[in-house]
Amino acid sequence: MAAERRRRPVVNQRRDDLDAPKSQRRPLFRPQFTSRDRIGRFSEGFARAMGTPWFLIGMTVFVAVWITFNSSAPEGVQFDPRALNFTLLTLILSLQASYAAPLILLAQNRQDDRDRVQIEQDRQRAERNLADTEYLAREVVALRLAMKDVATKEFIRAELRSLLEELERSDDSAAVAADDAERSRRG
Q1: Is residue 79 part of a domain?
Q2: Does any domain span residue 12?
Q3: Bigger pLDDT: 1 vs 70
Q4: Per the domain annotation, does 113 fall within a domain?
Q5: Does the structure show a pLDDT above 80 at 91?
Q6: Does one domain contain both 140 and 158?
Q7: What is the model's pLDDT at position 34?
Q8: What gap in Å lies between CA 183 and CA 176, rounded to an integer?
Q9: Helix extents (H) in 51-152
Q10: Over 80: is that where the pLDDT of 50 sits?
Q11: Number of domains comprising the chain
């Protein structure tokens, strides 16, 4: 009996939504921009487009055409008459400005976040470079100290010269001793 109740489709879904935990309920309103990244990319694209000369030229042409049409067209055709000080145009431009300002601020915030991350990465890179430089400086000092204990070319030449001189002296001494020994045998 309990298995049948679970398998039966629920007709009144609203009643069950209140019984279900919040994570299982469907939201009433699903915005099109579900992720912050999408909204951020949209705002950056919007801010980038508004900052171009083509946007300013396009807005200038749009306003000029609007004002020209509503000033020179017959009164029956005008949709925003000059007599009412172009109320519709003012509302449209105000609406555009009211959306542009927050979107530009969002784009600036994202750029600030990227700059902050870049600065942190640069700082970490600079710390690593400093640590590597200090390590290499210590290694160079250690090599210099070790080089004092290593025989240089001049030191080896001087040692070889002194050994040759000793050998020549010992050869001379041996020759003198051999001469003396031979004289003593003869004599």
Answers
A1: yes
A2: no
A3: 70
A4: yes
A5: yes
A6: no
A7: 58
A8: 10
A9: 53-72, 87-149
A10: yes
A11: 2
Distance of CA 140 to the CA centre of its chain: 33
pLDDT for 49 equals 85
148-168 burial code (b ≥16 CB/10 A, e <16): eeeeeeeeeeeeeeeeeeeee
**pLDDT recorded at residue 152:** 75
Q: What is the pTM of this model?
A: 0.47
Indicate whether 93 and 161 sit together in one domain.
no
**What's the chain's average pLDDT?**
81
Closest by CA position to 42, among listed 51, 33, 31, 30: 33
How far is residue 71's CA from residue 93's CA, in Å, rounded to a whole number?
18
pLDDT of res. 93: 92
Which helix (H) or strand (E) element contains residue 167?
Answer: helix 153-186
Degrees to nearest 5, angle at CA 186 with 185 and 187: 100
Whether residues 95 and 164 share a domain: the answer is no
The 10s digit of each residue's pLDDT in 123-169 is: 999 999 999 999 999 998 888 887 777 777 888 899 889 988 988 88
* Contact between residue 49 and residue 55 where contact means Cβ atoms under 8 Å apart: yes
The answer to whether position 6 is within a domain reads no
Average pLDDT over residues 15-25: 59
139 and 67 within one domain: yes
Residue 176: which domain range? 151-187
**What contacts 84, CB < 8 A, 6 or more positions away?**
none
